[in-house]
Amino acid sequence: MTSFIARLLLAAAVVAAARPADAAKRPERRETVVDASFELILPAGWAAERRAGGAVLTGPSAEGVPALISVRHVGPDHALYGTAAAYMKRLTRPSSIPMKGWKNGPVLNMEAAGRKALRLERDTTEFTDPHTIAPKEVAMREEHLALPAVPEAHGFYLLIYTAPRSIDKAQRAVFRALVAKGFKPKL
Amino acid sequence: MFLNRLAFRLPAAALLAASFAVTSWGRSTTNVPTLKLEIVAENALAPAEDFLADKEAQDTVKASDEPGYFLIFQRAAELADLKGVVAGSADAHSIRLSLLQRTSCSFCLDPVAFPAWITKNLGAPGQGKLAAVDEAMWIWAKLTASQKAWVAVKKKDAAWPKLGFVERHGLMRDWALAERAALLKLNPAEAAGTADFRSRAYYASQALGSHEMTKVWERSEKLNRAAQSLAAARARVAMGNDPRQKALLAQAVNAATPEARLAALAQIFENYGERPAALLAAAPPRADQTFTPDSRKLVADMLKTAMLRETEGTFAGDDLKEFYKKTPLVVTFTTTSLSALGWYEHGGNTLYFNERYVEEYVKTHGKSIENLKRDPELMQNLARIFAATFVHEAQHHRQDAWARENKVPRTYHQGDEVEAFQTDALFMMQKLRDDKRFRDWAAKESQTSSVVAGDIAMAQRMEEEGPGYFERKIPNTHYPEVLSNEGHAWCQILWHNFVEGPIGTELMRRSRLTPAARGPLESSTKPVKPSYATAEAFRVDLLTVSSKALRANLADAKTAAENAAKFYNQIRIRQEAAAAVTMDRYTKLEPRDGPRTQRAPRGVPSPVVDTEK
After folding, report:
1. Residue A19 forms part of a structural domain
2. Least CB-CB distance to B9: which of A6, A23, A46?
């Protein structure tokens, strides 16, 4: 069954997790993503999807690739990295895989949500339609922000922004605003 | 890629909207007149969402007023659905295609009412989409000069503001089809002409479905490659005084078709002893560069062996060796208008690979199909190009075989793609690390092959960010139109809830008919159709479907709904087990906080230069 069921499925999918904001108290219906370990205000026009340990926010697209912001809490017993510094190290250490067109910036210290954080900006690439005859390369810009939980023994938070470079300027402003005012860690 | 579900096109935005997690959860009223006023008469989204989210309230309303319940539920679902049409990464084209799937909606095709509803009900997030909605609705100010001229010729320009979306779109579709026909005859030789071609093609594509412009885009690609090569050839020929080359250049400039131009240009470069890959791939094939039925089968069999060999010594290779000991595998080439490199159709044991790519590969290397059969290196490199796709599609094969073994319905979901991408990326990561010859080949091949470059990029993501990268990225970026496992479970239940009322009512109606009136319906063999354009069409058709089919359909829906949670959990357990295996293997290759060894540095990281800040 295709179109009719598809519409029903569509409705179901929306019903499945669409939870109304309290319109009476918040006329603009600003939506808030709530996780056990953080809370954030959804940027206008972006959609949120829950994922293990956090959420993925989807914004506008360009060249077939959407801007994404991933927010998650990483526990100290994580299989790959236990601290913000270890995460950054993993991202920046040398590799033998022959990549072209990727550039890491320096890992910088900064403040986010009132905490000391590490930030890495990088230029990367993505390919639209992987496993097709002619995947198209899209130049991407990323920002990885890692800030500790309090106390640090509780792990850290990762906020990862990725967007096509052609829309980076506008979408990075959204990410920066989210970090500055819309993200509240609970640990 | 999973071909069987290609028709399963849900607008991306709707699915992205599917998982808003927000603070409050409203309780719905159960007062039917109030619900009818707010949801049915006023199309208010908030009470509609409250009602949909409150199963208890729905049950109360259904018990007190069943027809009223269905009326309210249907409109509430429609309103929630419309929210999805404009959410997330929806743009004018996706909104337009979504609206065309909703031609029986209450008000969404009204160029005034729909934007007004968005403004009133969606607040700030909706405001950001109003321009896209206007464009989707073919607002006059957003039409191109060519589109306006077309409308004027049809004498509809004065009436345009009053036309509904469907009528406007009908005119724009006619315009686009005329554009498409014109574009397929155009043959610009120079870059400026090809840029104009692409621009016209883009505007035409905005009025057509996703696959309706394939031939135009293929022509555009050929024209583009030819124009670039023509400029290069012109410079080269001007440096010499070879009359043969000059004649070929004139032949290219005046060629009647892009294919003839590419052939002339390929000859020019071949005369210089060069073989530009892109040019050769786009040029028409020689007779010995296309398959015969025999060579197609033989080369596919050889490729199967070569691909399996290419996976040896990797985790994925070990899995496939075991799997294909007890499961048959057929590899075949198929001509298709799709751009997929390979795919698997569930229920079978065949992996399909795109024949067009194989022929382009042969052309690119200036070889023949016969060479492919006889030159081991040519075959091995083709197998290397296909290796990641092979591992990916074979993982879908394994998923399907598991479902068959465990008698679980095959519900293709986003998690299947995440798992397949994780498997092929881990394979590429391991292969690039452990197989130096493969790594050297890949580094060289990726300079000209975006297929290989894309596979390497996935391996790099796996190495740096681990399997979690694919959970974060793949569903939203590449498969927003595919449901999650959770979505499938919900849909089965909703489908049952939806059909239960109308089919039950119809069966009840029939039970009250006279035997003479009921007889033909009982003896009829008319089935429930596999799809319906609208809910109304479904209801109308029910009146003539055989009673046996109605009962069977209702029973199937009930069984599916009852089993939805069970199957969801079985699939989830399998998926989690597969993810655990991938993570275990990954950490063997890339231990937590452990140093990477025996690898050359990629270079000192350089600061990102962002001139736009």
Report:
1. no
2. A6
